[in-house]
Amino acid sequence: MDDAPARRTVLIVEDDPLSARVVEKILDRLGYGVCAVIETGEEAVAGAEAHAPDVVLMDINLAGTMDGVTAARAIIESLGAPVIFLTAAVDREIMDRVAATGAAGYIQKPVKLLDLKANLEMAITRRQRERPCPTDAAAQLYRRLLEAVGHAFGRPFAVVDPDGRVLFAHPDGRLAGELFAEAFPGQPPAPTETDTPCPDASGRPLGWVRLLGSE
Question: Which of 49, 119, 184, 190 yields a CA-CA distance of 20 to 30 A from 25?
Answer without folding.
Answer: 49
